Structures are given as C-alpha cells and as structure tokens.
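Honest question from a wet-lab person: if I give you the sequences of every part of a complex, can you actually get the arrangement of the whole thing, not just the pieces? Trying it with mine:
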Amino acid sequence: MTLPSFTAFGMERPAAAAHIAGKLAWWVFLVAISGGLYFLVWVYGNGLRDPRYFDGWLIVGGMLIQILFHVSKAVGLSPKSWLRWRKIHVFVGYLIVVGFISHSDFSLPDSGFEWILWMSFVLVSASGMFGTYLLWLTQAKRPIDASVSLSRIPALRAELRQSMLAIAAASNATSPNVDLPELPYDGWIREFCETDSMAFLERRSNVLGHLVGSQRHLSLFTDAIDNLARYVDQPGKAKLATLKTLAIEKDRLDFTQVSLGLSRGWLFVHVPITYSLLILTVVHIVVAYSFSSGLW
Amino acid sequence: MLSWVSTISGRQRFAVLVAFATVVCLTLFASYSVNLGFLMPGPLTSGHSTIANCSSCHSAAGIGKLSWLHRLTSVDQPADSLACLSCHQMPSSAFNAHSAPLEVLRRSTEKLKEKKSNVHARFSEQALNIVFPVGSASPNGVFCATCHQEHQGVNFNLKKISNERCHTCHVRKFDRFDGQHPQFDSYPFSRRTRIIYDHTAHFSKHFAAFSKNNPTKVVPTTCAACHNSNGERRLMAVAPFDQTCATCHLDQITGKERAGSPKGVAFLTLPGLDLETLSKRIDNIGDWPEASDAVITPLMKVLISRNEQGRAVLKSIDGINLQDLSGATDDQLTAVANLVWEIKGLFSTLTQGKISDVMADVQVGNGLKPGAARLADLTAGLPLDVVLAAQKEWLPNLSSEISGRGNPGQQSKVHPPTALKSPDAEAPPAELPAEEQPKPEVTSIENTPCTDEPVDTTIEEADEASAEVDQKPDAIEELDSVDEEAIAAVKGRLPLPNGTPRAIKGLAEGAKKKKLREAAETRVRKANTEKVVTPKEGCAEIPQPVAAQAQRPDSGEVSQFDDLLFPDKNLAEAPPSQNDQKQKQLVPLPTNAKSLSGIVPEPEPASVVDPESWAVYGGWYRQDYTIYYSPVGHKDKFLHAWLTLVDSSSSKGAPDLASQVFAYLAKKDAPGLCTKCHSVDEIQGRGLAVNFSPASIADKQGRFTKFLHEPHFAIMDGKGCVSCHQLKGGDTYLKSYEGRNAQKFSSNFAAVSKEKCQTCHTRGLARQDCLLCHDYHINSAITIITNTKVTTPK
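Yes, you can. This is the full assembly:
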C-alpha cells in the first residue's frame, strides 16, 4: 500500500513534520512555563502574601520585554536578530496572557478603571495574537509573493481584467465547416466572461474568506469554468484554462492585499493601545500600592 | 519638534495621540469623579457594602482626590488593620498569629515541636520556604488583609482560608486530618470541670442509694436530664441547680443536714478576752462580757480594717492569743485594748449610724471599694435590730463608754475592765474560782432599772456573797476537770448543734457536773436575790443581775465618766450622794406603761427557741456573742459576694485579710458548702477563685479547637453519648480537686481519640479541612456597638 503524498503548508513531508514538531515543542514549552508560573503564584499565595502582587509584577516584567522588542526595531537589528526578537515577543506575549489570567483570578473586572485596563490589555493581546495569526497565515499556510506590494495590487488586478476581456473578445477563426449549425462556443465563453468572470473580477477582496483561509469563492468560480469546459471545443477549453489561471491569480492578489492590509492595520490597534496600556498599568500599580494592606 | 513629528510614522503618531488621550481621560476622571470609586478594584462584601469612603478602611486615602498618593511615601501597614479593629474589636494581640498572646504561641510551638513526626514537608511547602520565606514577610505581625482580601465581590467569603495557608507557618506540617494530623491530647479535657461532680460515684452509688431512701423523688436517668446544647451550641451545658442537684443537695446548703459546726457564717462577734489579765494590767477597756469565747471572724476583720486605724490595730494583735494574755507584753495588752475599742467603735457606728458608714469604706485586697450592689450583697440586708439587740445585751453601756472615750480629758475616767455576765446565765456558779466569777453587769443610767435601795448596799451584799463563794474554792474543784466546752455552755457559750460528737460529749460530761454547778449557782443567785430591792412604783423591776460594782465610788478606781452625768468635773470627782445613786439606778417607766394597764409590765420570758433552728430558711440570727448569717439556699448572694470580693486578691497561704476571708468561707465544711461542688482554682497572678459558674461559651475563648455536639446527635448509633464519652473506672476524679491547679485533671470519662473522629472525617465522607474544627482567631472579634447619642433638649 502506498502512502498518499503528504504535504502540509506547502511543504514536503519531512519539513512539515519538523515544523509540526517545532510548533508542538513550542506549545509544550509555553504550557510548561505557564504551569510553573501558576505553581509559583499558588505557592506565593500560600505564603500568606497576596499573589496578585506576584503575578502582577511578572506581567510588568513581560511588558518590559515586549517594549524592548519595540525598541529593537527602532535600533535596526539584522533581519535574523529581528526574527529572533519577534519569536521572543510572541512567546512572552502568550506568557503575559497566562499571567494576566492568573492576575485577574479568572474573573472579569468590576470597576470602571479595571474595565478600561482589562479591555486595553485584551485589545493589545488580541491584536498581538491576530498579528501572530497573520504571520502564520502568510508564512505557513499561504505564502505571498514578496515582490508584490500593497500599492501595486490594484494595477495588477486591472491587468487581469484586461486579460480576461481579451479572452472573451477573441474568436476561433479556424473552425471547421460542418453541416449542422455551429455551436456557439465562443458565445458561451464570452457570455461567461462578461457575467460570471467579470463578477468574480469585480468582486471585493473577500477579506473574511481569506482571513480564515477559505477558498470557497475561488472553488465556486473554477468549478463553473470546469463545468463549461466540458461543453466547449478544444480551443474553448484552452480559453477557459487561461481564464482559470487568471482567476487563481486574482485570488492570490486578493489574499495578498488582505494580508498586507491587515498586517498594517492590526499594528494600528496593537501599538497605540499598548501605549495606553502602559500608562494605565503605571496608574494601576500606583493605586495598588497606595491602597495595599496585606503582605506583598 | 515638527521635524520629529514628520519623521515618525502615522501609526506612531496615532499611538502618541491615544496615549495622550488616555492621560487626558484619566485626569478628567480624577478631577470630576465624585469619589475614588472608579479606582476601586471590585465591590465590597455585603457586610462592608455600606462603607462609602475609602478612608474608612484605607487610612492613608484621606479626603482629597489625590491624597491617597501619600501612602506611597509612607509605610504604615498596621494603620489599615487598626481601622478594621475600630469595628471588629480584638485584644492587643490581634496582629499576632491567631491573635494569641506570644506566650501562648510559644508554648503551642514548643508542644508541636515535641510532637514532630517523620512526615516530610510537601514539595510546595519546601519551595515556599526556599523561594518565599514567610518569616521575612511579616516581621511586624499578621495584618487583617493578609487573609481577609476585600474587593472580591458581594458574596465573597472573607473568612475563607486554605489548608495550605494554615500549614505555611506551622512547624509541624501534615497532609490532612485522616493522615498525619497530630493525635489529640486528652481531648476535650483541657482542664478540670468547674463543678465537682463525680459521675462514676453518682451513677454507681449515690443515685441508687437516694432512690432507695426516697422512692418518690426522681434521679436523672439520661445524660440529657442534666446536659443540653440548646443555649450555646459549642457547649453541652449543665442544667441549672434547681433542675438537677437541688433534689438531693439543697438541704446541705441551707444547713438542714448539717450536724457539726454552726449553720451560719459568723459575721460579728465579741471575741473572748483574758479579762483577768487585762483588768490587772490595763485600765481602759470598759465593759466586756466575760463569758464570750468567740474569736474575731475574718469578715469582722474586714469591717474593722475599713480605716487605717483599724488595720493598724489588727496588725498589732496579729499572733496574740486573746484568751490567754498572761504572757503578753504591755504593748500587746495595749493592742488588745485598742482592739476592744475598735470593736466597740464598730458596734457604735453600726447602731448609732448607718450601715453604709461602715461598709462604704470597706476594701479588700486590691484596694478597690465595692459598689452599692455588691455592698448590698455583702450585708445581705443585715437588720439594725439584730445589731442593736446584740449591742444592748453585749455592751449595754456602749454609748456612754464611747462618749466618755471620745472626750480626751476624761480618758482616765473610763473604768477598768469590767466583765459582763453571760446573757444566758442567770448567775455565775458559786463554785467557780474567783477569777472565773461573772461580775455583776455594769449598767448606765440609760438602761438601769430604778430601785429604791442604795446601790452601795447592794454592792456590798453582792460582794459578800461573792466572798462567800470565794471562800469555798474546793466546791468547784471537780469543775476544773470539766471539758472546756461544757463550762462554756454553762457560761452561755455557743450551744453546740445537736447530734454532733462534740455536743454529745459535752452534754454527757456536763450533765454529770450540772448538779454541782446548779448548787453553786443557786447559792450565788440566792445571795443576789436577797439583795434585790423591790422596785418602786413607776419603776421597772431590775433585771438580774443588778449592776453595781462598776459605779462604786469608794472603790478607789475611776469609774466611767459621762458628761451628762457629771457636767461639772468637781461633781464627777465628788462622792456621789444617795440621791445621785438613786437617779442612776432609777429609770422611770414609760408613762403609758402604767396608765394603760395599771400593772407594771413583766419582762418577757426569754425565748426557748434555738435561734439557729429558728433561721431554718436562712438569714440573720444571733447566738451567744456572735451574729450569724445562714445561707438562704443555692446562689446565696451573701456568700457569693464575699467569696468573689476576696477571691481575686487572695492566694493560698498568704496571710492577708482577703486570704483569711477566703479560707474561712471556702473551707470544705464552711456554711453553704460552696466549695463542695464549686472547685477552687489558683489563677496565676490573681490568686484563688471559686468557680461559681459551670463552663460557658466565654470559657471557650482562647481555644484553638471548636466542636459542635448537635451535628453529631444523629450519628450516635444507638449508643448515645457513650459513643464518644465512655466512663472509665477508678477513683482519681476527686483527687484532681485536692490541689488548686485546674490543669491537673483525671476525668470520669475517657478522652476522645482522633481515630474516633476519623471514622467519619476522612476522604470521601465528612469534611476534614482545618477550619472545620479550628478557628484562626482564638478569640473571635467583637463587633462593637456604635455610639449613638441621645438627643436631649437644651
């Protein structure tokens, strides 16, 4: 029995296995450190101290590391160092989330300031995790062409449109003479190009579909091409094949646009709210120590 | 600036803008918020929900909008906890572990160290000790917020504490109750019971014997007949005396079943004195009954010591045998004389003034004066008539003596010691030696019946009779061998209670001598009777015997001086005329005495009722030269007041007055028999104390362990209380009470073992967390009532 060809994320089997193993190790490491963190918090609390001071300072420490990543970008590290920093940034980010859950004692806040602080943290964390997801989406799931920039995508999309219109306008002059009335293959293709294909081309970027990694919209269109191809002659099939290639390219451009756009957009949430969170955190620490009564 | 702005990206500009907006919003919040509520980390528990101001608990919060920031610069950790104590009152040791005194903690720690087992601390505990050592965390104590974390929501349980937290500090760590929890130490007997009640003896002997002798009366048949936990759930309280012990023991308290010593507490006495020696060597004690052989009671000493002078007198007679002063020094005799006058002064104050004149100055031991309620109990409604009657009979010339003594210029006029006849004896025995001869009673003008015979004649004849008796000393020779008590009975000494061995002995021997004594008495009585003059019309008959000798002007001794009698000193020194003598002897009858009946009233015959028997329900009575108080039943206020007045300042063997009173009233056979059932404990630093009350919830204060009986009633498996409390044999129970140390105890019941509890309190069955049986605060906090001022119109 021959094993089916195994591919994942566009990688061959050994590379994919190594990738999965690496990711698994990463998560195991995260879970282990989180478990150790909770144990320390529990032990700290058993020592008659208020554990919120312990995990609170752990969070602050993690936030300082995150700020260092921001500083490192400004300093101008080498791409390799920058990538390493980014990995640390993501990992520490998850640890901070674990610490935050411990700090909030698995409960929602009760007062106004606490809600603001909580929401700020959640927004920063969520945006950070979204950025991590985007990174995974563009690196592992569906790599994008590094040469394509966000600003070029509309022009490329227009070129695709022109190509599609050209295909629709083209006719097969070498059609053999037959007795029966000639089937209107070109007309079918033209009609398909002017209706379904143009709709596909004109369609917006399909952000949500690309964000969740869905290609259903593309599949629907290519399936329609494949269905039509069964009824056209050989030249028509060639036209439709070209049309299918253009559709795939258009979808790739859409995905690139979405990923690049969101990659810029999530930082507009992540970074400014981080600034706000830092200020709120300082106020929170001051308030906590101003009203502290028990052991730290 | 602009160049910098131009270099940063739009995203960064937006970030700075958001940060700036955050600061602005916070500033606006801080400026325009009504209070600091928006900073509050969460709602308070329902009990604290009405606290509106942060500063009520957070002492540094202040009232300004940003005043709470001052807390950052000042470290005053106890301040907030002290704010807690403003409502939840706790002792000064509140911030110690368990709010227990350091000495208690030290002892507990040492005790646990002794029990240290082979159980190794768990990994988490080891990690805690290494990474976060507790000792360094709370050098100044354990403050409230250490365990009671607020702002956790309305329904949060502030008292919740985990087992692990309990183990943090304990030197002996263990896993769980059904694991390595230490064995119990003779639980629940941390001390002996306050009420001495030998369950074994009652169950095996007393109940059966009582039922046999009193078939109509009911003895307890179940534990619940005497014990219940309805009032305080932590206690199986003992039912009141009236519902339990009274059936058998009430008569023992009131003295009905008392066969020996007096049933009452001797309160006031005229102590017996060696008058012979005193008369020879001291000349200023005035009248004193010869027949008294009473001693000064400790209670009377308390009254005498109400002032500095009294205390000095009592101190000066310490160690002197008042009834044998033959070997006494002059100073000692003077001290005795001073005592006599102190006692007379006491009686004078009690009869001429108010009882408060004496009691208000009473102070015992700690120097604190008892309050009005206590004073009322201490005197138990002592009637004036009792004291007045005693004074008239014992010291009939008291007022004149006191007034004479009160005039310093006339001190020398006080007559020499004069022995008064026993109130019970009609005449002294003729065959008594001269020194034991009762001398005629000295009378003053106030209470001397009038006679129309010259006093000196009477005196002379009485003297002759006495001389006649004196000439026959061998007539009473046999009496010398008579038991002292029998003689004393003749002289009017305290009658012994019927049935006592001493009384039987005294009566048997006394009866033998009675005829001899009666013969002697008859002769003396005859001699005196012959000298008694028929009273004049309008004058009362002179009661026997007639006072004479004291006022003898030719005796060569200075007699009692009275300003009323001798307003002029020359008159006082001049020999009294016959008329003067008459005036002294005659006391006109009340005008209505004759006008109403036309008959001179006969003196009432002496009551034949034994005063002690008369006071069968308790109260005051007078017998011989002592005024007694007989307990009126259980919870007698008089005994309780005196015992509790002196208990805190007395200690075993100490010579102070409080100890004497305590020893007198707390004797095993003292009237009331208080200490027969109420054990006496020696409390360190306080002295002895009678446990009048059984164990109460207040006695549970300071204990680490709590237990509720009620939840266990349903699981006693048909055996009832015996399921846990099994009677054990032996007779060591009562021996536990021979000493004063309450910690030495041998119960009638076997201790409850940990294994017994463990049958249910184990994994999968009943709870076994620390807080089930142990409270953290050994003395729970008291929520004090707020000060609410009553509005009154101005």
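Two things worth pointing out. Chain A is about 75% helix and 0% strand. The interface with chain B takes residues 39-40, 42-50, 109-114, 264, 267-268, 271-276, 278-280, 283, 286-296 of chain A (CB under 8 Å).
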